[in-house]
Amino acid sequence: MAGRALAWHAGAPLLFMIALIAPVSAEAAQLSTCPDRPTDVVRAEAMYAEAHDLLRRSDDLEHAARLLERSAVLRPRCDGRVFDSLRMAARLYQYAGDMDQARATMLRAAEHGVWTGNVLAAAHAFVDAASLAAEDGDPLAANVAADRADLLSSSPLLSPVQRMYIRGRIDTVAQLRAGG
User: Of the candidates 83, 163, 87, which has an alpha carbon nearest to the alpha carbon of residue 129?
Assistant: First the structure.
């Protein structure tokens, strides 16, 4: 018994040091993820404003969408406007008739929502991407995006009402895919 107790005590300082260092390392890792790339928030804001101004004075939806996408790229990944910019750009591509670009951009918004932990926004964006794919006649892409939304709808971070609403939207997309 004395040998075991001594062995435990000999390793205790090491375990104590690991316990002290681990939370600091995890916190440092979290802080280092944002920003994780070169950013230029001033240029991002200018492009965001230019896109909105462009929408007020013209109908060049694709140019406004590209400005919003560039604005998203220039922001830190943890900036909430990244998701908003990507989602709005996707809608603008959709309204301009560029369904492939709309779907790709909506998927980027959804992935960004997953990356930032915004489960609700990500799930809705995946449903939107599924709907875009269904409208465009791509049932495989619609299924993949709908499955991602369904998986996120099981998150304990969502309330039962949120879960029900997302699943209802998924069912609507399924009806689109079925042609009804």
Answer: 87
pLDDT in tens, 141-164: 999 999 999 999 999 999 999 999
DSSP H helical ranges for the chain: 2-32, 41-57, 61-74, 80-96, 99-116, 119-135, 139-153, 160-178
CATH number assigned to the domain with residue range 39-178, chosen from the 4 options 3.30.460.10, 2.60.40.10, 3.40.190.290, 1.25.40.10: 1.25.40.10
CA angle 107, 138, 140 (to 5 degrees): 80
pTM: 0.77
110 by Cβ neighbours in 10 Å (0-12 / 13-18 / 19+) ranks as buried
